[in-house]
What we know:
Helices cover 0% and strands 52% of the residues. By secondary structure, it is mainly β.
Amino acid sequence: QVQLVESGGGLVQAGGSLRLSCVASGRTSSNYAMGWFRQAPGKEREFVAGISWTGGSTDYAESVKGRFTISRDNAENTVYLQMNSMKPEDTAVYYCAQSRSRATTPRPTYAYWGQGTQVTVSS
């Protein structure tokens, strides 16, 4: 059983920053690649960022490259998403996910999901 609990969402002005956290419990998350996804109202869920099991490799959607940074602390079973220079189009529910693979390439299938945290960026 894997449990993923996100936190850190909220309301921020355009140009501002937020840091999301995801704490994992159960199946050892430190052995697997982790990722962040988001879903805006009326849109499909989309990939945002992924990180390999060691943290040595990362993968980003083009829309967030240079603005978002994914990182992990395996000792704390926690994955982070630092979001800078935020835009109104970043508004979405953000989900943490755990894959069944260790690497980020090829982009893995994610098997376990958190409940999501709302991020709203005002213009």
